[in-house]
Amino acid sequence: MLVAASNVARFRGAQECDRSDIQVAGLLTSLHPGVSLYPDAAASSSPLQLPFAADVQELLVNSDEELGIEELKRFAAEH
User: Which of 46, 50, 54, 56 has the most Cβ atoms closer than 10 angstroms to its Cβ?
Assistant: First the structure.
């Protein structure tokens, strides 16, 4: 959980991992029941180059508008 929280902190450009990063890491793991937390990328079962799911790929390829954070959030909420 702390490794996931550290990655959340790194993603937001923080200088330290704080309570909110642990909360976000907890939320992320709760959204994916049965998820395993890997201590490092070498132990992860994910491929080195992680592809997008088909519906995400379709959005990226077929969108006529510039995709920003709000558009991606809307897309995620719809599915």
Answer: 56
